[in-house]
Amino acid sequence: MKKITIAVITIVIILAAAIGLARQQAHHKQASADTISPNTLTIGLEGTFAPFSYRQDGKLTGFEVDLSTAIAKKLDLKPKYVQTKWDSLIAGLGSKRYDVIFNDVGVTPERQQAYRFSTPYLYAKTVLIKRKNNTQLNSLADLKGKKMAQSTTSNFGVLAKKSGAEIVAVPGMTEAMNMVTTQRADGALNDLGAYATWQKANPDADTTAIDLSKESPAAPAAPLLAKNNKKLQQRIDQAIADLKQDGTLQKLSLTYFNADLTKK
Questions:
Q1: Is domain 36-123+219-257 in CATH 3.40.50.450, yes or no?
Q2: What is the pLDDT, as a whole number, of residue 132?
Q3: Do 79 and 69 touch, CB atoms closer than 8 A?
């Protein structure tokens, strides 16, 4: 009788282990079903846009790097990063270079028509960056006819053009600031957090920034996916909801921006 009992217990343990393994394999299969590479979440970003994504001592870091890493962990996937310049970043989704973009991508009706957004995770503040001795730039109305260093396809570039500015095309924030400081552009519109990080790294730069929150309300930034990838979007939605609930999202915002920019 004792031997029978031991045998039954052994069978139960083996069956439980088999079921657990089967569930784990099914979970991994589901986790990989909506990504371009098995067991991997391939993420597109600039990698030169501090504090969102940038290299420090050769290592990729930043708010969106940490956030997307946490999301990949929630999805039981390994994060893989593909650095791409902004003006060709979104097009990379169509050519399946990555599954999702984390790059302070603003939610706009035009992008919603062609792509799919997950849940917004950040509400960026727009600032007008200029040289301190430039007294002519103080609002969006002042941009008309002025040279503004912008990425042409960014929200900020679109806003500057809409305000009547002459766009001096640049690939990113670093190049924009170089154009402003060398007087090859009158100014630039960009994110408050990005400018604060640049200013900290360039304390002697003779620049300042004007908060345009009243004229240009904070725009939500969200993960951007291919239009047909609804399942991955829904899973990322849930991961973001979990990270909001456990405080991770707010903690990352405070770490990189010294403020909670996760709410409107």
A1: no
A2: 97
A3: yes
